[in-house]
């Protein structure tokens, strides 16, 4: 089978399209790249949906934690402490156990025991807690002068938050939030180790990398390929979040930001 035929057969195998049987022997480098790349579709799926939904929920948690109302503040504090204080892998374990218990109650909860939905919910809750703490810190760091100026102009309530506090909070929090997004995409590899099963061997990138490592007894080919894919994905995230960061700081002088200079340290 040529490389073009391999790509046609396995490019979307992780989604259930193409060849159903995995290669059994004489693994080629093209098969490694194609199948691991196919599994990356699931990692991108987990990361994108968790970041998008977690961003919205994290903002609500940050505002609630900053509230003077105890009924709003305490649940937000407990939620953030719980998911920041426990390891993500343990959260996957308890999440799967909970979803299996709900599955026994009613067939309506059956989709929750699958990796496509159950693992996504756990990632969403985890990144919401970490992102909320980042946004809360930025919210507390807003200069008092900005808030006082908004009060002087008569801005109150939602209008003051939307026009003054939210943009400033985003500018302060965005670099740290970029790191959280990168961490979340890397954390999607933990889905493979969680109890959530891969339906019909349609797993994520680590699933296929582990398959090749088990069959060839050589982890030094599939795992570096997996790392390469995540490095490329990280560069895309940095590029995309960098566009947003420049948009948030468009009012600042362009020459105020230091230029990136690559200076290799050849001698330590």
Q: Could you walk me through the main structural features you see in this protein, from its secondary elements to its overall organization?
A:
- The model has no long low-confidence stretch (mean pLDDT 90).
- By secondary structure, this protein is mainly alpha-helical.
- It has helices at residues 3-10, 29-65, 70-85, 88-105, 115-140, 144-152, 157-187, 205-216, 222-248.
- α2 (29-65) packs across α5 and α2 runs antiparallel to α7.
- The protein has 9 helices and no strands.
- The radius of gyration is 22 Å and the shape is globular.
List the helices and strands and how they pair.
Layout: H1 3-10, H2 29-65, H3 70-85, H4 88-105, H5 115-140, H6 144-152, H7 157-187, H8 205-216, H9 222-248
Helix pairs in contact: 1-2, 2-3, 2-5, 2-7, 2-8, 2-9, 3-5, 4-5, 5-7, 7-9, 8-9
Summing up helix and strand content along with how strands pair, one would put the structural category as mainly alpha
User: Ranges with pLDDT <50 over ≥5 residues?
Assistant: none
What proportion of the residues form beta strands (DSSP E)? under 5%
Number of helices: 9
Helix content: 55-70%
Quote the distance from N terminus to C terminus. 48 Å
Short description:
With 268 residues, the protein is mostly helical. The chain has nine helices and no strands.
